Amino acid sequence: MPVPSFSRLLGRPLPRSSARDERLPNLQALPILSSDALSSVAYATEAALGILILGGSAALTLSLPITLAIIGLIAIVVLSYRQAIAAYPEGGGSYVVARDNLGRNVGLVAAAALLIDYTLTAAVSLMAGTQALSSLDPSLLAFEVPIALLLLVLVGWANLRGLREAGRVFALPTYAFVVMILLLTVAGLRDLTFHHGWSPDAPTFTAALQPIGLFLILRAFSSGCSAMTGIEAIANGVQVFHEPAPLNARKTLLVMGILLSAMFLAISTMGFMYGVVPNPDITVLAQIGQRVFGGGSVLYWILQISTLLILVLAANTAFSGFPRLAAMLAEDHCLPMQMKLLGDRLVYQNGIGVLVAITALIIVICRGDTTVAVNLYALGVFTAFTLSQLGLVRRWWKLRGEGWQGRMAMNALGSITTFVVLMVIVVSKFDEGAWTVVIAIPLLVWGLALIRRRYREVFSALAPDPDGSPLKLVPRDPPSGHHAIVWIASIMKPSLEAVRYACSFADSVTAVLVVQKGEDAGQLSQMWDRYVGSDTGELELVLLDSPFSSLLDPFCDFVMEQEQRHPERITTVVMPVAIPRDRLDVALLNQRAGNLFEALSTDQSRVFSIVRYFVPPRSTQGGATSSGSME
Amino acid sequence: MPVPSFSRLLGRPLPRSSARDERLPNLQALPILSSDALSSVAYATEAALGILILGGSAALTLSLPITLAIIGLIAIVVLSYRQAIAAYPEGGGSYVVARDNLGRNVGLVAAAALLIDYTLTAAVSLMAGTQALSSLDPSLLAFEVPIALLLLVLVGWANLRGLREAGRVFALPTYAFVVMILLLTVAGLRDLTFHHGWSPDAPTFTAALQPIGLFLILRAFSSGCSAMTGIEAIANGVQVFHEPAPLNARKTLLVMGILLSAMFLAISTMGFMYGVVPNPDITVLAQIGQRVFGGGSVLYWILQISTLLILVLAANTAFSGFPRLAAMLAEDHCLPMQMKLLGDRLVYQNGIGVLVAITALIIVICRGDTTVAVNLYALGVFTAFTLSQLGLVRRWWKLRGEGWQGRMAMNALGSITTFVVLMVIVVSKFDEGAWTVVIAIPLLVWGLALIRRRYREVFSALAPDPDGSPLKLVPRDPPSGHHAIVWIASIMKPSLEAVRYACSFADSVTAVLVVQKGEDAGQLSQMWDRYVGSDTGELELVLLDSPFSSLLDPFCDFVMEQEQRHPERITTVVMPVAIPRDRLDVALLNQRAGNLFEALSTDQSRVFSIVRYFVPPRSTQGGATSSGSME
Questions:
Q1: Which residue among A263, A291, B355, B476 is least crowded, i.e. fewest CB within 10 A of its CB?
Q2: Which residues of B touch A503 (CB under 8 A)?
Q3: How many CB atoms lie within 10 A of CB B628?
Q4: pLDDT per position as a tens digit, A181-217
């Protein structure tokens, strides 16, 4: 049970049964699964224009052909993923597809790329959402990092509460964003037709910093490819759809691909028509909105707010994806087991915590500027694309079901195309930060593989001997001799209870008292005789001197020596602990149990027993000591 | 034993025997015990001038009569403390004297005043030392807070290492400071005689902000009283002197009082003669040094550096006084017992830690400016003075030894004088921060008394019944029934060892396995039968379902229900713990023992046994599992 204040913050525990998968109609599944993909149009055009402007304002005209090329790529990837849905109707992420078809190690590469991607999705979406907000009010520009961090904390908190249930509400921002882009397009085209007569505005003249060459175009293309993030989400979430789930998912994926292409084309076209130049203080989408709707108009505000909301939603998809992937990796023993612990609210709380921490780090390092993060982003996405398509090629080849040639060809095309784009991104973006991902992926793979190897070793060391016969254990199995060593800090009730407990099971009991400076050994012996008795057979009191200031060291030495002298005995160290029942007592009572446990851990195998004695709280002064008694 | 890196930082543990008290000749005891008192002349004149300047430059002439009044006060206090030495030859601090003669509660008032004083001594000395440094190089002015904090960390670290042994080295800075003030005086007087013809410089004209009235004079007097801090140190440390210790201490105290008075008078006189005006960027002592020795001269540098060193030494006295007083209070059960724990280096490490933390807080709050802290400082000092003198009056009255009338009269005079000064300080400084101490002392007293009362309650609750007969415990005392409940996370060697241990002493054993989502209960039962056996009598396996995600809750509920159903049995909860022997494993192995211990702590009295299983580290792969076996 969590501490009360925690449960107030996160809500009451949810029963496991409420985790059953909810099925959604296509119209609800679409917005929930595609917020990441659709929201990327809010920064993809901007990312491409941001590179092209280096070639001067003239180069901006290249944005349209680049957009068309990316739309062609989207078509190929969407068609490839429709096949993934057919192959993995239970939902196949890139990790699962790569692991099952290309082997565990290639699977780890996909996993590493995805882990990096999810954190970048969260960071880029929140930073872009903050920019949508500061485009509305420039006075917020100085606070972009704190605002992005605040949004991060909110999304993290909502996920720790297990906010997945609110799925239906999540549909609204996505549709609002789609509707606003539609409105923007219709109004923009009408405006251009009636007032401009279809001749594009001349953009503010900007001098070229670099020649317009193939390299510049490829870099702009690579940046624009950030529009393709999130396409795989529908293929990963097939089980969310109504039956027949694969059919519905394929339909929805197609609709999503068309929507994404149309929105991306519309924004790039209008950016070109209105002669928009990228500006660090106001986003490209906001600039278009200002020119079409007017700077202070209600529609402009709605456009920006819906952009913010869909971007927050997109960040939220990382919060369902990352912890789930981390839990799968933990299940495969490639990450610490803690990552698969389900919290009281049925969420992978440790995964959420790690994601919040890494995302916060990225936001702080990037200082709220998406440029570098977007560069890295596309790299991971295309690594995952390539590997999952390649896995499907391998799968069709192995299974050779009906029509396997066509399917294999489609996925081969997808895999080759995305691999080529991946190489383009690596080469063209290497200086701009791609090198970090090129280093990070192998490092992550190495770490995941190290953990997997170590878990395998540990499990084989801990597994019971498969050839051994059953232990045939029976209680009160006469042992070769049971010896208990009781730590006595002072001759008080908790210590006496511990001695009583030790006597209840051991054949011989040694009570050990380390004499502190200023204590009288003789007096302590007398107290022992007075309260325990002087003729106690196999129960003896040993008084130890402490040459150094530590009381634990002489005790540990004594225990070690006893164990070495009688290896045939089972030795149990018994420690009395006064458990505070009162906030004040927590500070007043010395909690040495943890220290002693740690100190003894450094030596041989040993049983450590804690006998609790509950100290009555202040409210029930006197007379309430009976609750501490053992019998 | 501490962690290796710790012992490298702090040095190897010292044996208790090295704590024997070292005796010092007077010439060494003087500098060690009076660095606090003598160093206060570095800021006392400045503090008084800082108030007087509010009355305009004309008011600065009042500094000489105020200095003479304070020197009179020093004489009275020194004579009073000479009597304290006679009465408490083993060293009587204000706390002990007040506690023994005026009762425990008045003792707590003295203790509270002293605790506040020690922290202010450390803070004021370090800040004044930093100012001595930045007077040398004004570019350090911006870094006063970090420099003071750095000095604090150094002094704290030196004390955690137990630097008391280096006592002899400590004599140098004090004598260097005394010699430099002497040189300054001689050179200054010569300079004034030959070049000025004994007419004081007219100070830079400053307009009066306040009228020169009694109140202003009293406030300046109160600030100047900060020169009197540290006088009690020699009386507290009588046991440091060679025999006859009380006689030597009395002599040394007299010498110290004369030195202090002479230095204070010299600095105030020269400040007046040279027309020095207080300046936040450079100390008064540094201004005098610049005029006498010349700004860039070697002597000026030596003056400033020796000022810095004696002030750091003065801060160091707080580091021996505060932890010792805290340990005495813990001994009297007025502070948590942790305060009297001696570390491996034979120092009260917790007291040092608390002092570092509070001092750092004061330095940060004051932003390196001593003004406010000096105001508060004198308040605590005079409270302690008054109470200890009053305690002595009471003592002489009770004992009525030889010449008691004279002694009582002397201490009565001291006590009345210091009480009057105390009232003057409270009234004149109330607005300038004295109110915080007026609030803090009663709060601290209340806290100390609360802790004392609670310890008394706890001890009476935990003490064995004085009228009861001895327990007459004997090992293997047949108990009414011993039941063990073993937590099984999975059927692996650590769990089997725990079951084996439970069977070695309990009459009945229940192994409890909480079935996780995705695990097959039937298969687990089969594994149990395979490895443990199917016909095990009083040893049974119980499989629990987990409706919520927590695995601990169903287990705790089961334990509670078992205990309630069989209150006659002694129940032991046995938990297997895989102990990592490898750094990597620390992250990989789930350490649930602490959580389970905490979860079970909230209920009834219960014994919690941890059976360790040591996981072999990576270097000894395979075959090394035998070390984990219990037999």
A1: B476
A2: 473-477
A3: 20
A4: 999 999 988 887 776 555 555 556 666 677 777 888 8
